[in-house]
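stage 2 :: seqdesign
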């Protein structure tokens, strides 16, 4: 009989500051652990790289959808079973098998490496616009003024939202922010919110007059794949917009902090494209923009790491722990920007791996290089230990990152 150990409040800001030390202890003492978590109850947590990858890759025994696997009522699991924002209706995160493949196939062509590269000039333009807007200021909040609006503007453009001025970006941001949840809770989305009204109008417009953009593909379908109905469309827009936006924004903020704490490498980084590529992979590993995968439900009795998991149990694969596993990475608690190879799983694994991984890589590359090229003397306003982290489930990011810009470089 496996004992249950006490765990931290894993949606608290205090925990988010350093989630790594708790999981490091479990990797050694109890890599498949039953943990009592405040507000959640008992749950299985996987902390080793091998076990986390094995779980994520095995969609037969470890499913996202709890239906038909004997799982208990999941209402009490809302803080962690659900993503860090409420989604109306079926979405790729919560479906398996044929239903999942249909939704993924519809949107996949817009997120290939080749398709994403077409958005590079637009992304560079948006980054430049945001940096221009900072020019007359001494201090800025890099999260609010840069990390959040940049990926939001890019995904908006993919949906057909043409953003040409800061005023238009501000309006778009207000629309999206009308659909925010309460941190750490599964909120019930308001179908009459400004955001959802906008999404429904977009769906009807694309149905009436098809356009070759992401919204057009979702609403009108593609070869061999039926289009989404209005409810599915709202759910998909919500999922792609908020999941990609939040995680990339968190990554930009956390990566900038990590680089400011290791500032001696920054100059070499922005002048060497190959080093920048490796550094991005290391920042993905080290910063943990998604610190744990959503719950998987065990469909049949399974032995994992010498522990018997029963049908109906639910497990949480801890990505932040897998990416700091000493068995996979030398000196895992230190950012080694040239690290190569780098078998991190920041984007997950298996059928539910992040569909936007190429987009996220491009955005962080542009965001980091543009920022430090423009403001090479960028520095923290306050010590990093004083920074507050978001109190929200699944993802990990700073609430704010006050920085001093220094003298901009002439471009």
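stage 2 :: out
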């Amino acid at each position: 009989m496996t004992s249950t150990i006490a765990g931290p409040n894993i949606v608290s800001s205090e925990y988010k500051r350093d989630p790594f030390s708790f999981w490091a202890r479990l990797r050694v003492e109890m890599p498949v652990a039953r943990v009592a978590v405040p507000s959640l109850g008992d749950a299985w947590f996987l902390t080793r790289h091998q076990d986390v990858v094995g779980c994520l890759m095995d969609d037969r025994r470890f499913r996202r959808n709890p239906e038909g696997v004997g799982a208990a009522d999941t209402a009490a699991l809302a803080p962690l079973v659900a993503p860090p924002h409420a989604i109306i209706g079926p979405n790729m995160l919560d479906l398996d098998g044929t239903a999942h493949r249909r939704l993924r196939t519809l949107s996949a062509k817009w997120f290939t490496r080749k398709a994403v590269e077409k958005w590079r000039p637009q992304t560079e333009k948006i980054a430049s616009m945001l940096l221009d807007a900072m020019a007359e200021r001494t201090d800025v909040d890099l999260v609010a003024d840069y990390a959040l609006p940049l990926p939001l503007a890019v995904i908006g453009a993919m949906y057909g939202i043409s953003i040409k001025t800061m005023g238009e970006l501000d309006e778009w941001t207000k629309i999206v922010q009308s659909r925010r949840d309460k941190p750490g809770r599964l909120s019930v989305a308001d179908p009459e919110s400004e955001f959802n009204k906008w999404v429904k109008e977009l769906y009807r417009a694309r149905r009436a007059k098809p356009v070759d953009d992401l919204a057009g593909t979702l609403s009108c379908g593609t070869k061999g794949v039926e289009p989404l109905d209005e409810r599915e469309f709202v759910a998909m827009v919500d999922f792609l917009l908020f999941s990609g936006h939040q995680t990339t924004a968190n990554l930009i903020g956390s990566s900038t902090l990590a680089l400011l704490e290791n500032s001696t490498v920054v100059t070499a980084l922005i002048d060497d494209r190959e080093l920048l590529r490796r550094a991005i992979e290391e920042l993905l590993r080290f910063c943990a923009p998604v610190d744990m995968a959503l719950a998987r439900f065990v469909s049949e009795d399974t032995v994992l790491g010498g522990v018997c998991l029963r049908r109906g149990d639910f497990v949480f694969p801890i990505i932040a722990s897998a990416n700091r596993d000493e068995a996979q990475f030398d000196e895992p608690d230190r950012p080694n920007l040239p690290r190569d190879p780098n078998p991190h799983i920041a984007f997950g694994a298996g059928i539910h791996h992040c569909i936007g991984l190429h987009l996220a890589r491009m955005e962080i590359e542009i965001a980091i290089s543009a920022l430090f090229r423009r403001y090479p003397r960028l520095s923290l306003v306050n010590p990093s230990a004083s920074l507050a982290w978001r109190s929200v489930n699944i993802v990990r990011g700073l609430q704010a990152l006050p920085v001093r810009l220094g003298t901009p470089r002439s471009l």
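stage 3 :: structure notes
- The domain at 4-404 is CATH 1.10.630.10 (Cytochrome p450).
- Confidence is low (pLDDT under 50) at residues 180-189.
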